[in-house]
Structure formats: structure tokens, C-alpha cells
């Protein structure tokens, strides 16, 4: 019986202790500030987040106990709303003190959101998704002691000003920065992009800027130019020996001068054949002690190994005579000439050059239009003798007979179709006949203007022919030929641009601008008419025979102005025409000019004024303006942008 009473007493004591513990925990829970919630702990099965927990030294024991309970026990204390669990906005960790509202650090507003947020979202702890699916605990932040007047220690977070808000529970609302000082909150600093997160929306409604390889690119600003991209270059030294007989009794050779003319090159696979003519002037002393002259033209052929060369590319040969050695052997002049042959092979390509103020100034052809036109010609040809069959027809368009005229939005092309016809006559003998057929064609090229530069490459893509035999005949002189020609038309405008040099960029042959200058002159002249004039109806003028020579600090310009006067006759009332040519010369000051530089002169007739002093005397004034650009050809490496522009890969998109 005594043992039963002891058991009952122990059970009652345990019950009293349990009730007291529940009451104590409940009282501490209700003492927690309103608007907070217990943290989500590891192993709860929920989406892992990073949470901020105040240090144990400044946290009441009840909150430490709640933080150590399992998730189910924590939810029994205060259930977590579903919308808060998934849509909680990030905020700084909070620390609470008994009897006061918790202090919170100011957090930046997300892009696209206004600074005014609901009070409950502003009081939530900072949570963030972890890439590994594990809960990460943020470093603890010590609460701010408002009662302390001491200065904060080095490295400690500065206190943040707060204002009381009109929300339930007297919760404090964070204020946005006020950069203007007028009480208007400013925009909060946007958060940085994360590698695996989509780009945030702009608060102004515009898309974020495009990022390409760490640099900002604006599509379409880098000009597309037609450039001579260097493929390869190489040089070779050639030693040539000639033996030239001189008249008997020649005493000595006084001098030998030379000049290189007619330099041509032909491109093969990985090789370039160079042909030239060496003009020599030999001055020798004859038996009469007089100096005599002997001229000769010597053809020279050689080849240079240039890896990467292919037919259809462009070559630029430069031949220099390094040394000439000569001596007499029994009235025979023995000459040894050493030549240095340098070949540069380029290919015309479209490249986007990156412009930058203060960069390297060059002259470049900016592409205006790049189109292809096609011409189909069906031409009857009369053979010189009757043919029983045609073996082959070769068609080409000689570039020396090709004329190009740009007009508004079109390009007019004229030239000759050079045909070589190989056929078999009635005696079974193969014959050859050449035929030149003129043609005229135009290609639509939007944006073209008369002052633009046009490059046309004709390509014969198809040739067909048929002999037209009369009824019962085995031979004929009539042949019908069809030719299809493609015209690759590139229209560009010449302009000066400042480009960016890059040691790892594209190697381009370009003309670097060294100086520019402008000058105006006025030509004043009296012209005597062939017949008396009632009035001057029109005057046309153009600049011809323009020549320019670069000198130190200036450019000398010479040429002629060709004018055509149209006037009404005094006696007959008919319109008459009279032409005249006026020579001129001008000097343009150009800083940076030097001898043997490349000079480009753009003449402009700005004004023409005529005054009829008498029926047969006309006073004329012509104002000319000259725009001069001086430069030199260089091989430079330039920064280029990709063309066409690739779509940049936005992180997280």
C-alpha cells in the first residue's frame, strides 16, 4: 500500500512539472514579436534555404529551443503559411530584444519592384535557394544596440535608420535611399546577376543590355567594309646575267641605268609567277672617245613560293634592282643584275572594323550594297566557212573593255563578250574564229549614288551553242549561242574612319591617313565668242587631267577645266556651242605631307558665273575647291567584330 502511494505521488509531481513546462514554453512563444516565424531546419523535407539565426548569447532560451525542434514541432508552435513558404521575399536577418521592435538592415529592392512592400514581406528572414539542395546558414549578424552611444567597431555593420509604418503590430518599414535630399526615395541598387539565374527585368521597362564576351556591343554600329585581307607574302632574290656585244674598239662602259616596267603576276596553288621587262640604257665610250648609247629591253620571269595562294586572289608584286655589276670582255658587255622580288597576296573580304575616336585613321570602302545580277544573251553568229560541227566555244569578258557607271540605285555595265569558236569545216579541218559581241546590262543596287565606288566581277557560268542546218544540208555557217553571265556587284563609299589596332587582329592592307587639307581657287577669264550672242543659256564644266604631287608640308595640284558654253545667237536666234579648256595649278597646305606619298584629290566646281560684256566678249569666273588626303600604304592588324553578328548567349536564358 505504501508503494502505491509513492507511485501516485511521483506521477502527480511529473504531471505538475509537465504542466509547468508547457505553460513556460507557451508564455515565451506569445512573448515573441509578431510577424516573425521559426526557421526551416535541415532534414525537414522542405526546399532548402539559407537562413539567418541570431547568436545564442543575445537570443532568449525559448527561441533557441524552438530552433532546435524538428520541423513538425516548430509548425505546432506557429504554422507557416503556404504563400510565405514559396514566395517569401529576401531580406536581411533580424534580431529582437525584449520589449521592442526588431531592428533590420536595409535591403535593395529587386528590379521591376517598387520600394513600397507589404510589412510582412519586409520582416521576413533572408532565404535563398542552394544549388546543391542543402541548407546554408548565413553568418550571424549582431543586433544593433540603440541605447549605446559608442562608435561602432571597425568592420561592424553601420546602423540603419528606420521609420514607423502604418502596419499592424507597429512593425517598422525600411526607407529607400534619398539621393536628391528632397524626401523622395531613390532607386535601390539592383542585385548582381547569378550564373544560373535569368536576367532581371529592367525597372524602366527596357530589356537589359546585350553582353558579348564581357563587352557591350551595339548591333550594327561597326561599319562593314570591303578590305584587302593579307593571305600571305614572300620574297625571292634573282640573279640575271646578260652578255651584250658592243662595237669593236669600245674603250669602257661609262654607266648603265635601268627601269622596271610591265610587271605582271599569275597566281597558282601556293606559287606566284612574276613577269617583268627590264629597260636598260648602256652608255659606253667608243674608239672615237665619244660616249655612245645603247638601249635594250630584257624580259625576266621568275616564281615565288607563297603558301596559301589560290587562283582568283589578288597579288601585288614589287621588284627592286639591288645591284648591277658589269665589265668588258673583248668588246662584250657582261652584266649581272640582282633583283629582289616581293609578292603580297590578298583577298577581298567583307569585315566589320571596330571604330573608336582617336584610333588609327585609314581610308576604307564602306559597303553600301552587295548584289548579284544575271544576264542571258542569245546571239546568232555567222561563221567564216561552213562547219559540220562545233568543237568548243570559249567566252570571256576582257576587263580592259568593261565600263561601269553607277546611277541612283542602279549600276550600268557595258563591255564585250570575247568568243573563241573552234569548229570543223567540210574538209575535216579544225578552224578558229574570234568574235567580239558588245553588251549592255544593269543591276539593281539600292542605295547606289553616282559618286560611289563600284567593283564588278563578271563570271561566265554557262555556254551553249547550236548549228542551224538548212533542210538537207550537212554544213552551215549559222550558229546560235547562249551565254549566261553573273555580275557580282559591290557598291561602296570611300570614307575615312578611325579604327582600333589589335596585335592579334586581322592583317589588312590599308592606306593610313597622314594628313588632310582643303583649298579654294578662282579662275577668271575673258572668252571671245565666234558669233555675237544675245544671251548665255548654259555653261557646263568638268575637271580633267588632274595630277597631284606630294611635297614637304604641301601638295601641288595641276589640271584643266573643260567648259562648254551654250548661247543664243544675236542675229539668227539659234543656240550655239563653244568649248574651251583652261589650265590651272594650286597648292594645298597639308600637315604631314612628304615626298612620294599617296595623294587623293577630290575637285569640286562650287560656282560658275558668266557676264556678257559685249555681244562677242564673255567674262567668266569659276571657283574650285580641292579636298586633299595624304597617306601611305601599310600592313596593319585591326580589331574586327563578327559578321554577321551572332546572337549572344544570355546566362540563364
TrEMBL record:
Give the transmembrane ranges: 6-25
Q: Which ranges carry the SipL SPOCS domain? A: 252-326, 390-461, 535-612
This protein's UniProt keywords: Membrane, Transmembrane, Transmembrane helix
UniProt xrefs under InterPro entries: SipL_SPOCS_dom
**Which stretches does UniProt call biased (Low complexity)?**
83-96
Residues annotated as signal peptide: none
Q: Does the keyword Transmembrane helix apply?
A: yes
Basic and acidic residues: bias regions: 101-110
Residue ranges of the region described as Disordered:
30-59, 83-158, 171-209
* Transmembrane keyword on record: yes
Q: What is this protein called?
A: SPOCS domain-containing protein
Amino acid at each position: 500500500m505504501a508503494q502505491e502511494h509513492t507511485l501516485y505521488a511521483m506521477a502527480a509531481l511529473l504531471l505538475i512539472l509537465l504542466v509547468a513546462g508547457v505553460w513556460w514554453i507557451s508564455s515565451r512563444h506569445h512573448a515573441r514579436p509578431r510577424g516573425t516565424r521559426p526557421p526551416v531546419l535541415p532534414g525537414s523535407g522542405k526546399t532548402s534555404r539559407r537562413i539567418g539565426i541570431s547568436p545564442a548569447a543575445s537570443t532568449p532560451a525559448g527561441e533557441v529551443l524552438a530552433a532546435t525542434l524538428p520541423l513538425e514541432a516548430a509548425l505546432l508552435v506557429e504554422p507557416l503559411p503556404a504563400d510565405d513558404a514559396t514566395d517569401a521575399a529576401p531580406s536581411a536577418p533580424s534580431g529582437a530584444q525584449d520589449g521592442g521592435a526588431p531592428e533590420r538592415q536595409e535591403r535593395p529592392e529587386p528590379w521591376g519592384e517598387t520600394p513600397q512592400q507589404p510589412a510582412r514581406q519586409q520582416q521576413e528572414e533572408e532565404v535563398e535557394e542552394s544549388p546543391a539542395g542543402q541548407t546554408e546558414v548565413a553568418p550571424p549578424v549582431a543586433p544593433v544596440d540603440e541605447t549605446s552611444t559608442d562608435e561602432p567597431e571597425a568592420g561592424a555593420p553601420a546602423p540603419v535608420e528606420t521609420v514607423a509604418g502604418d502596419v499592424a503590430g507597429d512593425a517598422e518599414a525600411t526607407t529607400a535611399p534619398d539621393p536628391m535630399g528632397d524626401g523622395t526615395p531613390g532607386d535601390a541598387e539592383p542585385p548582381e546577376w547569378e550564373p544560373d539565374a535569368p536576367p532581371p527585368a529592367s525597372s524602366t521597362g527596357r530589356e537589359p543590355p546585350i553582353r558579348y564576351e564581357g563587352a557591350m556591343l551595339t548591333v550594327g554600329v561597326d561599319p562593314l567594309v570591303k578590305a584587302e585581307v593579307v593571305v600571305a607574302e614572300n620574297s625571292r632574290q634573282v640573279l640575271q646575267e646578260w652578255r651584250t656585244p658592243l662595237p669593236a674598239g669600245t674603250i669602257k662602259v661609262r654607266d648603265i641605268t635601268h627601269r622596271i616596267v610591265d610587271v605582271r603576276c599569275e597566281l597558282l596553288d601556293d606559287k606566284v609567277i612574276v613577269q617583268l621587262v627590264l629597260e636598260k640604257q648602256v652608255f659606253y665610250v667608243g674608239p672615237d672617245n665619244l660616249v655612245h648609247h645603247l638601249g635594250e629591253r630584257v624580259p625576266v620571269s621568275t616564281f615565288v613560293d607563297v603558301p596559301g595562294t589560290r587562283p582568283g586572289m589578288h597579288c601585288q608584286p614589287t621588284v627592286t634592282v639591288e645591284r648591277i655589276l658589269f665589265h668588258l670582255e673583248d668588246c662584250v658587255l657582261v652584266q649581272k643584275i640582282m633583283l629582289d622580288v616581293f609578292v603580297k597576296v590578298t583577298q577581298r573580304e567583307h569585315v566589320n572594323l571596330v571604330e573608336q575616336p582617336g584610333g588609327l585613321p585609314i581610308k576604307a570602302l564602306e559597303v553600301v550594297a552587295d548584289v548579284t545580277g544575271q544576264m542571258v544573251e542569245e546571239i546568232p553568229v555567222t561563221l567564216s566557212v561552213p562547219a559540220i560541227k562545233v568543237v568548243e566555244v570559249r567566252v570571256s569578258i576582257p576587263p580592259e573593255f568593261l565600263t561601269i557607271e553607277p546611277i541612283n540605285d542602279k549600276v550600268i555595265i557595258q563591255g564585250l563578250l570575247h568568243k573563241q569558236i573552234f569548229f570543223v569545216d567540210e574538209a575535216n579541218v579544225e578552224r578558229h574564229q574570234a568574235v567580239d559581241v558588245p553588251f549592255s546590262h544593269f543591276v539593281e543596287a539600292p542605295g547606289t549614288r553616282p559618286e560611289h565606288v563600284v567593283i564588278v566581277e563578271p563570271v561566265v557560268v554557262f555556254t551553249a551553242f547550236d548549228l542551224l542546218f538548212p533542210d538537207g544540208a550537212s554544213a552551215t555557217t549559222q550558229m546560235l549561242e547562249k551565254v549566261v553571265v553573273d555580275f557580282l556587284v559591290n557598291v561602296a563609299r570611300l570614307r575615312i574612319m578611325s579604327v582600333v589596332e589589335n596585335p592579334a587582329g586581322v592583317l589588312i592592307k590599308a592606306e593610313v591617313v597622314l594628313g588632310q587639307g582643303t583649298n579654294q581657287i578662282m579662275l577668271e577669264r575673258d572668252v571671245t565668242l565666234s558669233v555675237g550672242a544675245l544671251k548665255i543659256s548654259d555653261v557646263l564644266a568638268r575637271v580633267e587631267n588632274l595630277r597631284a604631287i606630294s611635297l614637304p608640308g604641301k601638295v601641288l595640284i595641276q589640271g584643266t577645266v573643260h567648259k562648254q558654253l551654250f548661247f543664243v545667237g544675236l542675229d539668227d536666234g539659234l543656240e550655239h556651242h563653244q568649248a574651251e579648256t583652261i589650265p590651272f595649278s594650286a597648292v594645298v597646305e597639308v600637315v604631314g605631307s612628304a615626298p612620294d606619298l599617296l595623294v587623293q584629290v577630290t575637285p569640286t566646281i562650287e560656282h560658275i558665273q558668266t557676264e556678257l560684256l559685249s555681244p562677242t566678249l564673255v567674262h567668266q569666273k569659276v571657283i574650285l575647291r580641292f579636298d586633299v588626303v595624304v597617306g601611305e600604304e601599310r600592313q596593319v592588324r585591326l580589331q574586327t567584330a563578327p559578321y554577321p553578328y551572332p546572337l549572344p548567349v544570355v546566362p540563364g536564358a
